[in-house]
Design goal:
Blueprint (H helix, E strand, L loop, with lengths): L16 H33 L7 H32 L7 E3 L6 H23 L2 H10 L3 E2 L4 E2 L4 E2 L5 E3 L4 E2 L4 E2 L2 E3 L3 E3 L2 E3 L4 E2 L4 E2 L4 E2 L4 E2 L4 E2 L4 E2 L4 E3 L4 E2 L11
Parallel strand pairs: 2-5, 3-6, 4-7, 5-10, 6-11, 7-12, 10-13, 11-14, 12-15, 13-16, 14-17
Antiparallel strand pairs: 1-9, 8-9, 17-18
Length: about 250
Amino acid sequence: MFRMFNDRSVKKIDASFTSIRRLSLLLIITVLCYACAFFVPLLFLYQIARFLNFSYIPHLFLFSVSIAVSYLILVFSMMCFSAFFIRVLRVRYTEGEYGTTIKDKISFKFIQSYALYFPTYKVIGFLNIPPVKVLFLKMIGCKIGKNVVLAGDEWIFDPYVTEIGDNTTIGARSIITGHIGEGHLIIKKIRIGKNVLIGGECFIMPGVTIEDNVVVGAKSLVLKDTVLKSGRRYAGVPVHEIKPKEPGEIQQ
């Protein structure tokens, strides 16, 4: 059963002990996670710099190469530490309806999860290497299949309640969100099947099911709780089925 709330007018963070304690934990955990992640590439650069003489041009070039390598190390370090903190602290959440204040347990998990997830996902996105993003999503608990392509600048807001099947492509700048605020926090699963093509700049809302072999046209809006049937084509705002034209039908 979903719990119902309507706390739009309630302060999200107040002066209560619970709010202050959880806000402090949020800051401490987030800083600690990324401090650990940054320590690894900084240690690498420090060790390299010890053996370089910066008065020599070749050594300066080697140092520039080391900086590029350290960025790659940072990416994988952030992936590992973000996934570690998310799993150890159990900040992954499930579908339901919850309050929106920091005193609500799930709302606090929601905020903490975003703090640990989004910066890392953004850094990975700068490289735009789909297999690396898919790997990170799997590391933090997203159910994602084989040969999935994330085209770039897409946002999977709620990986813990998102399922993506094999051979699916999600177009650039698309948004897939499993949560919405309607006076309270609503979280619902999104299920995307196999061999699905989602065009660029689509917006997919909570509770959506996209069955196998579906094509969703670019810039489409898939409203909450919509089911897109297998093997069909959809497009529009909101989406509607695009039926194939009959033989001899005149193009409008």
